[in-house]
Amino acid sequence: MPRDYLLVIGEKVALAWVLTEQRMAFHAKHRTNAMALEVGDELLIYTTRGCFHSPTRDAGRLMGLASVATPVHDLTEPIVFGERRYTSGCALAIHGVAALREGVELSQLVTELHVFPDARTWGMQLRRSLVPLDKHDATILRRHLTTFLEPLEYHRDAYLQIAKSHKGQHQSAATAPTSNDLSRPVKTSDLHQRPLTTFMQLVHTERIVTSATNTRPSPKSVTCLHEIQKPGTPRSLQRLSCCLYLP
User: Fold this and answer.
1) Which architecture does CATH list for 4-183?
2) pLDDT, tens digit, for every residue of 202-245?
3) Tens of pLDDT along 58-67?
4) Domain boundaries, the chain
5) What is the pTM of this model?
6) Is the Cβ–Cβ distance between 174 and 81 less than 8 Å?
7) C-alpha distances in angstroms, 1 versus 37, 38, 76, 143?
8) Which residues are CB-neighbours of 9 under 8 A, at least 6 positions away?
9) Secondary structure letter of residue 181 according to DSSP
């Protein structure tokens, strides 16, 4: 009997690759879990809050439905994305997707789902690319998702266009960026070494500079450095750092 999984994707370039190629790739350390997939298993595609690099604007959403079309197999030539290599994969049949930035906000359903026994820490369960679902959960999620699904060709260009805003270069996009296949952006020179800096003038004598390094200490966190530049501010208070959790 086919089984059901959440397929967690945390990076827009990887998502565009999955939708374009209708394939999935896995890092070598997750080969065992990936090999458990069987043809016909259904994958409810979930994009994290940080997938499109706008976590304050976006929500984690179910946005697509696919099924495994071929057995997971070792690739003759690994897929290379940034500095990482993905050595196994399979073909997918994508049955439908939601319009860009639309879909089912998973946070609204966590109390109804068995896969999240503690609603306070539900995001912890998504720190992996494949999350098994029981029939109860799959039925609830599929029912909500169906109202958003439309043919892939209706929306593929929109997902490709937003992926192009990522200026990093890659040989080919894979999906398992870290120890958890799709739970955060891949470590490329563009994503992790180029800071994003925002200046906000408060008054004539004070400003805050926020720099997000994109070097993430956990699969769903962003390390931020805050500098307060104001005459008379003690040096010890001029530089503050924080870690933001992004379920």
Assistant:
1) Roll (3.10)
2) 444 344 344 444 444 444 444 344 444 445 545 544 444 343 43
3) 999 999 999 9
4) 4-183, 195-245
5) 0.68
6) yes
7) 12, 10, 29, 19
8) 15, 18, 45, 46, 47, 48, 51, 129, 175, 182
9) T
